[in-house]
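User: Okay, second chain of the day. Same drill as before: sequence in, structure tokens out.
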Amino acid sequence: MSDKDLYGILGVSKDASDDEIKKAYRKLSNKHHSDVNKGNKESEEKFKKINTAYEVLSDKQKRMQYDQFGGIPESGSGGFGTGAGFQGAGFNFSGFGGGFADIFETFFGASGEQGAKTRYAKKSRGSDIEITIQLTFEEAIFGCSKEISIIHLKGCSHCKESGAEPGAKIVSCSECSGTGEVTTVQNTFIGQMRSSKICPKCYGRGEVPEKKCSSCHGEGRTKTSSRIKVNIPAGVDDGTTLRLSGKGNAGSFGHESGDLYVHIMSSPSSKFERDGNNIKTNLTIHISQAVLGDEIGIDTIHGKVTLKIPPGTSSGTVLRLREYGVQKINSSQKGDHLIKITIDIPKKLSQKEKGYYLELAKIAKEKGKGIWGKLFN
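Assistant: Same drill. Structure tokens below.
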């Protein structure tokens, strides 16, 4: 399987729905996560590929471009990396650097220094990070705090994100003369064509450090491992995604950081079934309890409560304990606890029990209850 076969990496078909892609991603990322496979290099590589595949296939625009042109989109842009686009058909758009957006900017006036600065600003924001964490049933219901470990890009403290060694100057880029872009002329079948692209030396910034920072090598940020506390609100469900603003990768040279997306996986309960904010359980009662009614102590997620069974309750009846369900996220309201009643019909009777049922049958006959009367015809 090719590393560029994103559908194959996630184990889904090309016509897979968004939900199928999300489920496949959650399952594989949980299996190969670094917290589960510490020190396993093979799992670490698989985890990276899984995240790359999900980043593309979960984004409608990137997926459409991938399906159409076959390459892997560059992170944070609409363009494609090696092997993508129209290059096999005799066209070469590599000079445009930033994909289709840069092509349009070049032809329709967004070129020059301002165009380069605009493209640089778009690309300088830090990329987002996605992780998956596993919660118990109770942690998802009542909320909790989790401390997680992430590897991300963080602003360099040595150079204070400037990219320059402390004391060194930031100077105008000699490659683009401070404009942030370079212009090239290409010969085409319709004549010469001028095109502009982001400067490969300063990446559109227009300036470079006179001496690069010895810690980050001029990048303004370094890769590091951090522990982050995630507050899980009460009521999150399996498949919920939490967004932690600014907790992703640091932006270039002090620009805005990306976000951290935390995907929640919740374990099921052996006692309760969750349906959104409602809790469902089954309760089997004796036929006498169904006929005469009763009060029974039952377990709920909030502790033991008394359930009142009305006289004449039928099998299949659903009784409701209001607001004994799951708290709605960021609200004081709760769902309900729904109890489905099943009546236990005895298969074997003692002589004494049989006598009681025969007495009941006689009474039913006397009251004209047709099918009961057949017992004595």
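Residues 75-111 have pLDDT under 50 and may be disordered.

User: Thanks, on to the next one.
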